[in-house]
Amino acid sequence: MQFTVNLLVFFVCISASLCAFARESIETNLLAVANDNRLLQYFENGESKGPSIEILQAILKEAQLDATVEFMPWVRAFATASKNPNTLILSMIKTPEREDDFYWLIKVSNLTRVFISLTSKPENYVDNLQQAKQKLIAIVKDSAGYKELSSNGFSEQQNLYVVPEGELAVSLLENGRVDLIYGDPDNIRNVLNKRGRSDVAISYKKIAPENQRSSYIAINKTTDIKIVNRLQQAARKFEKTEEYAQLLIK
Q1: In the chain, where are the structural domains located?
Q2: pLDDT tens digit string along 67-118?
Q3: Suppose 102 and one of 55, 192, 198, 218 were both cysteines; which one would form an S-S bond, judging by CB atoms 3.0 to 4.6 Å apart?
Q4: What proportion of the chain, given as a percentage, has pLDDT over 70?
Q5: Does residue 23 surpass a pLDDT of 50?
Q6: DSSP state letters, the chain
Q7: How many CB atoms lie within 10 A of CB 11?
Q8: Beta carbons within 10 angstroms of residue 207's beta carbon
Q9: 112-212: same fold as 29-110+213-248?
Q10: CATH class of 29-110+213-248
Q11: CA 97, CA 147: separation in Å to the nearest integer?
C-alpha cells in the first residue's frame, strides 16, 4: 500500500514538472513577423533567407531561444507585432510614434527614402516636398514613410495612394497609375529585376544624409522582460562580431 502511494506521488510530481515545463515552453515560444523584401528578408524554396534573417537567427541562437518566422503584408505584420507579446518584427524603421511600443534589439539595415519617378516620365521628377505635393504618390499603409509624409501635410484625400505592400506600389508606378513612390531606390530596382523589368529606369534626386534611415529587429514591449534581456544581451554580443558587420552592409 505504501509503495502504491509513493508511486502515485511520484507520477503526480512528474506530471506537475511536465506541466511546468510545458508552460515555460509556451511562454518562450516567439513569433517573428516580416514583409517580403528581397534586400532584407524573404521566403524562397521553403526557407527564410536574407541578411535580416541571418541576424535574427544569430541572436536567437546566442539567447538560446527559438522563433517561428511568418511572412505577411507590412500592415498585418505591424499590427501583429503591436498587439501581441513575444512577437518580434523584422526590419522596422524606428519612429517617434513606434519607439515606446517596442524594445529595439539590433539594427539590420541602412535604408534610403526619396521620391522616385520613372525616367520615361521626366515631368514627374521632384526634388522637394512642395513639388511632391502636386503629384500622386504610392505609399505603404502605416509604414514609416506614410507617417513621415502625413506629418508633412500629405494626405490620402490629396496626394497619397495607399497600398498594403511595396510590390503593388511598384506596379502602380510601372503602369503609370501613380507619379511617384516614396521609398528606397535599391528596393524598387530589386522588385523590377525580380519581374524581369530591369529595362525600366527610375529617377530620384541625389541622396543626402537627411534621406538616410535605419531599420531594426524589435519586439513587443509587453514581452516577458526575461526574454527581452536574453535577446538584448545576445544582440550586444553579436554586434561586436565581423559577421554582423558584413551582414549589415549586404
Answers
A1: 29-110+213-248, 112-212
A2: 999 999 999 999 999 999 999 999 999 988 899 999 999 999 998 999 999 9
A3: 218
A4: 89
A5: no
A6: -HHHHHHHHHHHHHHHHHHHHHHHHHHT-EEEEE--BTTTBEEETTEEESHHHHHHHHHHHHHT--EEEEE--HHHHHHHHHH-TTEEEEEEE--TTTGGGEEEEEEEEEEE-EEEEETT-GGG--SSHHHHTTS-EEEETTSHHHHHHHHTT--TTTTEEEESSHHHHHHHHHTTS-SEEEE-HHHHHHHHHHTT-TT--EE-PPP-GGGEEEEEEEEETTS-HHHHHHHHHHHHHHTTSHHHHHHHT-
A7: 10
A8: 13
A9: yes
A10: alpha beta
A11: 9
**Contact, 99 vs 221, CB < 8 A?**
no
pTM: 0.77
Q: What is the CATH number of domain 112-212?
A: 3.40.190.10
Distance CA 89, CA 31 (A): 8
Q: How do residues 112-127 score in pLDDT, each as one tens digit?
A: 999 999 999 999 999 9
Query: What average pLDDT does the segment 2-7 reach?
Result: 46
* pLDDT, position 28: 67
Q: Please spell the DSSP secondary structure of 171-231, one letter per residue.
A: HHHHTTS-SEEEE-HHHHHHHHHHTT-TT--EE-PPP-GGGEEEEEEEEETTS-HHHHHHH
Q: What is the percent of the chain with per-residue pLDDT over 90, rounded to a whole number?
A: 79
* pLDDT of 3 over the 60 cut: no
Whether 68 contacts 31, CB under 8 Å: yes
**Which residue reads 502625413 in cell numbers?**
150
